Structures are given as C-alpha cells and as structure tokens.
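Board work, copied verbatim: Gamma-secretase subunit PEN-2
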Amino acid sequence: MDFSKAPNPRKLQLCRTYFYAGFALLPFVWAINVCWCFEEAFRKPPFPEQSQIKRFVIYSAVGTLLWIVALIAWIIIFQTNRTGWGATADYMSFMIPLGSA
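↓ predict structure ↓
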C-alpha cells in the first residue's frame, strides 16, 4: 500500500481505523500502524490532520510496547514456573516437554 499517495483525510481515517482495530487484541495492527504512519506523523511538513495522526501513532506505539512487555513477562513466568504448576501448566501447553529441567 502506498500511503503517501492517499489524501490527508484518508490517511487520518486509515490511521484511526488501525488504532481502533488494535483494541481487538491485535497488537500487531498497532505495530503496522506505527510503521506506516510514522513518516506522515513526524517527518512530513505540517498539514491539518497531522496532529491527530501523531496522537494515534504515539498511542499505537505505546500499546505495542505494553503488549510486548506483557508477552515477555508471561513467557518468563510460565517458563520458569511450568513444572511447579503441575497439571495446570500442562493444560495450558500445546507441547509438553519431557523432564523437569
């Protein structure tokens, strides 16, 4: 998608749509929103919709970072406590590794 050829109101609409789509537990959409709209929000000459696009890009970046931190925390907690949780952890696993180490 060539984001630069779209008119400014369309850019704002797409940025807003991807931001709200991220709330459907799709943090990858927020990451895409940051990648696609960063140039328009921070590197282009000022235009009327730019301040709103900036806001959505910043919020999308914060949302993405929060999801990454939460995912890494869950991975660390689960991997270090899996054997101690017994059958409960086994029910949460797709593949059950052999051994306890």
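The radius of gyration is 20 Å.
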